[in-house]
Each structure stands twice: as C-alpha cells, then as structure tokens.
Amino acid sequence: MAEPPHALLPADVAARYAGMPEEAPSFLAMLDACYSGDETTWFLTANEYALAKEGGLRWNECELMAMSAAAGDATWQSEIRAFWDRHFPFMLAVHSDYDYLAVRVDDGAVVHGYAPEWESPAVITHSFSEFLRHFEVEATASVVRWPYSVFVGAKA
C-alpha cells in the first residue's frame, strides 16, 4: 500500500505563506530529498521545513542570520520579518554567499538573493512553473547562466 502524501509545511509555516500560489509547495511536496552531490545546494523539503531547532541549517536560515545581524534594532528586524513573510524560500546554496531562491507570495515570481543583502533579491522568473522550465534547460546546458549556475553547479 502506498503511503499517503505528507504535508510539506508545518501548520505555522503554512499559515505564514497561506496566500502563496500552490505551484511550489505542490512540487516540493513530491520530493523526499533533492541536493547536489557535494550537498551544498538543495531544494527544501518537508524535512527541512519541519526542522525548528538549532544544530543544522533551517529552512529560514537566511532570515535568522539577517535577524541576528539586526539584533537590537526593532525597526530593522520588523522590516526583515515583513520581507520574509512575503518570500517563501525553496532552495538554498551554502557554497557561496548563502544564496537562496524564493517564491514572492503576492505574485508567484521566483527571486534570487544572497548575503549580505538577502532582502534585495532579483526576479528570475514570473512563476514557479517558468522557473522549473528554465532550471531544466540550465541543468542540461554545457554553460550554465547565472544565477542558475549557483544552484546547478559547474559541469565536469
């Protein structure tokens, strides 16, 4: 008997991103694990979204590092929280400047950001399905364009 699909997001995370288009969570829910061979780049899965304690990289690690940098500045922390309330991270790369890909909740665009200016991302596609099409093309290309090269890696 096949196992029923598991929920991608814990209740608190799902509530935070309730207005997000369903494309990304539907895709991510199908993955048990999806990471590079050197384990420095990965799609976030239910396991990462469920990780809530310290001891490993959490799904919202970029937000947590930004909040730490803004310690003691309530206004800055409020701005950081507001940004991440509108940006759902779904892919991380730690071999670089802590790059991330996220879905912008209000319109479904996929954005790319990195440290230290996490809250100043660039739009790379207008939807998650468009991102997947581009990602597939880049993953099989002989020369991978930036920012996909951060997440796909160098070709041997």
What's this entry about, in short?
With 156 residues, this protein is α+β, with helices and mostly antiparallel strands. It has 7 helices and 5 strands; from the N terminus they run H-H-E-H-H-H-E-E-E-E-H-H.
Question: What is the domain tally?
Answer: 1
Task: Note the beta-strand portion.
Answer: 15-25%
User: What is the terminal separation in angstroms?
Assistant: 40 Å
The main pleated sheet reads as:
5 strands, antiparallel
Given helix and strand content, the structural type is: alpha+beta
CATH topology-level name:
SMI1/KNR4-like
**What share of the residues lie within helices?**
25-40%
CATH class: Alpha Beta
Structural features, described:
This protein is of the alpha+beta class. The protein has a single domain (11-152), classed as SMI1/KNR4-like. Helix content is 36%, strand content 15%. The protein is built from seven helices and five strands. It has helices spanning 11-16, 23-29, 46-50, 61-69, 74-85, 128-139, 148-152; strands spanning 41-43, 87-93, 99-104, 110-113, 122-125.
